[in-house]
Amino acid sequence: MYTVADLKKGLKITLDGDPYLVVAFDFVKPGKGQALYRTKMRNMINGTLLDRTYRSGETFDSANLEERQMEYLYKEGTHYTFMDQATYEQVVMEEATLGDAKNFLLENLKVDVMLFGEKPIGVSLPNFVNLRVSETEQWAKGDTSGNDSKPATVETGYVLRVPPFIEAGELIVIDTRNGEYSTRVKG
Amino acid sequence: MYRDALWLRAHIVRAIRSFFWDRGFLEVETPLLIPANAPEEYINPISALPWQLQTSPELCMKRLICRGHKQLFQISHCWRAEERGVSHLSEFTMLEWYRADSDYLALMKDCEDLLRHVAATCLVESPVFSYKANKIDPFSPWLKISVQEAFLKFSNTCVWDCLNRGVYEDILTEIVEPKLASFSVPIFLTDYPAELAALSRLKPGQTELAERFELYLGGLELANGFSELNDPAEQRLRFETANRLRIRDSRCPLPLPERFLSELGAMPPSAGIAMGVDRLVMLAAGKDAIDGVVAFTPEQL
């Protein structure tokens, strides 16, 4: 149970049965008046934003969230299946729920699946993943056009900008926090 | 002109001191650790058992007025539990000044003179205050509007109706204060409903109003002043009412400041005001957050 004094950016609470993440918070208190706690919250399931103002004395339930390490198994249509390797329990997530994470999911990747009760609502990826370039233009040596990057497609189908010297078939490191090329895996 | 906000802050504090010294005010230091603050419905002291940190130096300063001092000022730290926001710190710096044989109108004049003095001495190149991209010129004529007029004009609501429906703070902060932000000069909200006057005198002949005002610059509340209530019986009733409302809201009632109540009858008609020093520095430095004008925030400790 939380009180208004616990409100801050990043707090996760349950509201009307859904988990919400507090994304903005302000405390206002007119002279001699009572304090108002203004929040903007994001529904962690469907992403909608909500503005709510609370007063002292109000309380909230914490969001019953659990992160469990699971392995990504396979995708069928827009359904992605993950398995808890300790219990062999499987959960299925919709592509829309995964958001950008789907760009970096390679079979057997270990991720943290966020569960709200029994329901999977998102995954946290490792900060860096290695993915093989499946397609990119050849670098014309001596190219002086000044382009310092070119598009490349990796094995998950994700397209990003890479330096011109990267070739198809190479393994590269991608920062999953911003989706950008980080470095090349040598050897 | 200043290397950082702390330099500007130091110059402002010096300007405040010289302003009051030049006008014959006595600078005082009253204890920060006290047995009882004035019980108010929505102000929570921080306890330092068995006493409390002051939420304002108000009671001790009024007791000095009771002893015969005529003009006092003090710059001191105050503490209010659970107050932290863009313009709130739980520990903050307050300027308070008191005038015996005077009323709230004289304090409004002091505010004008003080802010002009601060702007002229500390903001030499561009003597204007700013907040959230609004410029506020203290040298143009200041505005004054009653709380009821402001509610009627800006939000089309009656302040007493808002109080009864429990939405006074919502209308004030969401509709009225943003409208006050559009004025390019300082503005006084005056004549608060008597319900919002914990320690102020009611207006003679209009007892639904208190002789209380708040000063706003760019929509930011900077100071709260009033003609002092000096009737101990009435003051005790108001403290007891505040405690009843605290109990209703499941908050602890607060001890009554008995020494203050026993001396209050000796206080001549007086007026006193509290101004947030951190906020004044925010306005002078053009900072939108109080974090930008203090040496350390609690989160940095």
How would the blueprint of this fold be written?
The complex is a heterodimer of chains A (187) and B (301).
Chain A: E1 2-3, E2 12-15, E3 18-28, E4 36-43, E5 49-55, E6 59-62, E7 65-76, E8 79-83, E9 90-94, H1 95-98, E10 110-116, E11 119-124, E12 128-136, E13 150-154, E14 159-162, E15 171-175, E16 180-184
Antiparallel strand pairs in A: 1-6, 2-3, 2-6, 3-4, 4-5, 7-8, 7-10, 8-9, 10-11, 12-13, 12-15, 13-14, 15-16
Chain B: H1 5-22, E1 26-27, E2 33-34, E3 47-48, E4 51-53, H2 58-66, E5 71-79, E6 91-100, H3 104-122, E7 129-131, E8 134-136, E9 143-146, H4 147-155, H5 159-165, H6 168-180, E10 187-190, E11 202-203, E12 206-210, E13 212-217, E14 220-227, H7 232-248, H8 258-263, E15 270-276, H9 277-285
Parallel strand pairs in B: 1-5, 9-10
Antiparallel strand pairs in B: 2-4, 3-4, 5-6, 6-15, 7-8, 10-13, 11-12, 13-14, 14-15
Helix pairs in contact in B: 1-3, 1-9, 4-6
Structure description:
The complex is a heterodimer of chains A (187) and B (301). With 187 residues, chain A is mainly beta. Chain A has 1 helix and 16 strands. Chain A has a 6-stranded antiparallel sheet, with no helix packed on it. In chain A, strands 9-8-7-10-11 form a 5-stranded antiparallel sheet. In chain A, strand 13 and strand 14 form a beta hairpin. With 301 residues, chain B is of the alpha+beta class. Helix content of chain B is 36%, strand content 23%. Chain B has an 8-stranded mixed sheet with strand order 1-5-6-15-14-13-10-9, with helices on both faces. A 3-stranded antiparallel sheet of chain B has the order 2-4-3, with no helix packed on it. In chain B, helix 1 crosses helix 9. The longest helix of chain B has 19 residues. Chain B is globular and about 50 Å long. The two termini of chain B are 29 Å apart. The model of chain B has no long low-confidence stretch (mean pLDDT 96). Classes of the chains: A mainly beta (187), B alpha+beta (301). Chains A and B meet through strand 3 of A and helix 6 of B.
